[in-house]
């Protein structure tokens, strides 16, 4: 791995917390042609052969600083200024990265820095039904980050997300798009969101109607389901309702009108229902607040994911 300066410095930083080297490199690159620099940095980020420099678990060999080159290249990429729409489109392959560092999850911050010029490329990916679910979900997250960082783009982004919610068949992508609409506070999207749940086009592993009601402080009507992979009935996933005393619900995990699976007779069920304690909402961390675990990530991207 040989790169000219200042890129070569990315291979020498190593495991240093809080280093300002990426900022210094970005400042130098911004004084030249940042769009050309983005191509070289993207090449480094996508080069998985850098992972060969990782130290094997339990090994006492010296740490090779080149093992962190991809991470620092991505940090530098997010600090470039004035990237155009062509550069934004060229960054889309980074959303398909699948590695143990989860580098693709940091791309929304990169696109947020680019701003409006990135919307068209992200829109095309977000609306592509042939694309895999995860890159589409990250594209939606990137659009949301752009709208939050550049409020003038909010309506444009909401329109894209609503198109997914209206007729897309990928339940995970629809779920994430609803989650993004909640992040943007788009209460006007409620009719489309409700219809998507009624049509059973939403993965309730991603978001439930109960989350929507709670977020917008609506009257609570939907049952919150707590999925448990250990609870399987006839090959279908089962879930539990809010109260420990309410019965287990069996089904595919999709839709709003699932029927309870009774362990005893109807009278026993009614008696148990009467004894169930009323729902009390727990204090929740805001989706865009820092995660309480201290990771530095937003709650929605960490333990709230």
Detailed description of the structure:
The chain has helices at residues 21-30, 34-46, 69-77, 85-90, 107-114, 119-126, 133-149, 154-167, 171-183, 190-198, 209-215, 266-275, and strands at residues 226-233, 236-240, 248-250. The two termini are 35 Å apart. Residues 232-237, 242-266 and 275-283 have low confidence and may be disordered. The protein is mostly helical and 305 residues long. The chain is globular and about 60 Å long. Helix 1 crosses helix 3. A 3-stranded antiparallel beta sheet has the order 1-2-3, with no helix packed on it.
Provide a concise account of the structure shown.
By secondary structure, the chain is mainly alpha-helical. The protein contains twelve helices and three strands.
Largest sheet strand order:
1-2-3
How would you describe the oligomerization state of the chains in this entry?
single chain
Secondary-structure element order, N to C: HHHHHHHHHHHEEEH
Distance between the termini: 35 Å
Task: Describe the main β-sheet briefly.
Answer: 3 strands, antiparallel
Task: Write down the overall geometry.
Answer: globular
Helix content: 40-55%
